[in-house]
Amino acid sequence: MKYINLKNISPLDGRYKNLTKDLRNIFSEYGFIKYRLIVEIYWLKYLSKIPEIKELCLFNKKINNFLNMIIENFSIKDAYEIKKIEKLTNHDLNSIICFLKNKLSSIKNANNIIEFIHFGCTSEDINNIAYALMLKKSKKQHILKYWKKIIDYMDYMSIKYKKSVILSRTHGQSATPSTMGKEIANFSYRLKRQFKQFKKIKILGKFNGAVGNYNALLIAYPNLNWEKINRNFVNSLNIFWNPYTTQIEPHDYLSEFFSCIFRFNTILIDFNRDIWGYISLNYFKQKINFNETGSSTMPHKVNPIYFENSEGNLGISNALIQHISCKLPISRWQRDLSDSTVLRNLGSIISYSIISYHFILLGLKRIKINKKYIHYDLSKNYSILLEPLQIIMRKMGIQNSYENIKNLFRGEKVNEKIIKKFINNLNISDSEKKKLCSLTPFNYIGKSSVLAKKIIFYKY
Q1: In 198-260, which ranges are E strands?
Q2: Shared-domain flag, residues 401 and 342
Q3: Which helix (H) or strand (E) covers residue 173, if one does?
Q4: Which is the catalytic residue, given 171, 296, 431, 438?
């Protein structure tokens, strides 16, 4: 860590800088400026291809290459230049327009081209498409990739621990056994559902002027089908068209997009807490790194810090998601500016999630099942066999089976000897007695092993 990072207010750019570095080119101020510049250039090039706009000739290879190089060579220095212009104009989008005009002024006879920069647009036409492109890239290159890593590792653990019998706990009390593999598979299946839903969420865009009616474009070229032209432009960027908007794209899809992340994150919070609990129960042991310190005063401690870190960062991300999901779809009349500052925090939401995904994977790779302790825990909880005992008694027609079992054994110490003595005194067939006597806390696991193994067949 460079010393200058010690003065950063946000841990996203300080403590966790290396974990969020790949997101900076997308969601930083530099990234947002670049994406808006890209949209401006794409629109200018798109207009040049419309034959009816005779004032703007089809760009030749030289001009197209010139425009492409502005994007490809865009640097921090260029972004600083745009920020200097913004200090004068006090308008962030207008400063990008001025920058592009200055660039194009070096081309001979560029006046006509320059006048068609930002033609018929409102700032939000550019901004909403820029955000859409930013989210599209982060979805594909970052979010889904991390989600896949987490799900795949859970599937790996489900298979690895498919026969690792554990004592379940309902209401915190000893309950019917399961396997660790099946308990992890439960989470994998939940996450796979969210993964499939997230992939299907459409990223929307609008490009229809100051209040969504193509007013300026129609007054300039009334015979052109601007709805079709603008829809095709948006679709050409692999973004879905929103035909009905005010000045802004109404952000409903953003609420859908982040609400799905919220659900995925919430499932992971649940998972983190369960793994934390299993570590506390001594069902998992953590691999020891002898260079690490668990406590400043208690030398013996090996804390589940990665799961705690993941849970905390998921909580921050979800808190921000709750606000934007409620805030962004609401705008006064044709627009107010309260969404603008909120939208600038989309990168923070995704960054906190990415940090948490990183730590959950680190944590999972540092734990291993503690078979010895789990065996001990199961061996002193023979009372869990009262469930199969009462169900067989009921099957065989013994009246008040459940109630009698409850009255005899609830709150009492039960061991293997007591259970078998009770079974042998029952008025049931020898085959049923044999079945019940063969049961132990180690083999009364239902289909948990099979279900754990089958999780890989649930595709996402």
Answers
A1: 204-205, 240-241
A2: no
A3: strand 173-179
A4: 171
